[in-house]
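User: I'm putting together a small comparison set for a docking exercise, and I want a reference complex before I start. The sequence is below, and the ligand is zinc ion. Could you produce the 3D structure with the ligand included, as structure tokens?
Assistant: Of course. I'll restate your input first, then give the structure tokens for the complex.
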Amino acid sequence: MNDRGWSDIGYHYVIELDGSVRTGRPLIRVGAHVQGRNANSIGICYVGGTDKKGKAKDTREPEQKKALYGLTAELLRRFPGATVHGHNEFAAKACPSFDVRTDWQAHLMTLGIPREDIEEEEDAKL
Ligand SMILES: [Zn+2]
């Protein structure tokens, strides 16, 4: 989570507890969310991420997960070839308190990939 205050938030999107998506920094501006990777990444954060004692914990509400997956899918359509990562892959930090890549893969699995699509891909390789 961001500790610089809300006046100039370093993230491009914030997922509120009720799942509403708030726009932080406009996409045209470079984010300030992950050191060394700001220039070519889009920062998304969610409200929460720690337990009452301040320990890292995946506190995402179902509405937040839904919003996060929807936003991620939308951004991947807008920016083909982009990849999905957690802050904790690039910095010695716990946030966002879950394994982003595993979580995203698991989400994609729940969507299911139609059999014909897989066969088409296999044909294309020949
Ligand atoms: Zn972070």
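The chain has a mean pLDDT of 84. Residues 87, 93, 95 surround zinc ion (CB under 6 Å).
User: Thanks, that's exactly what I needed.
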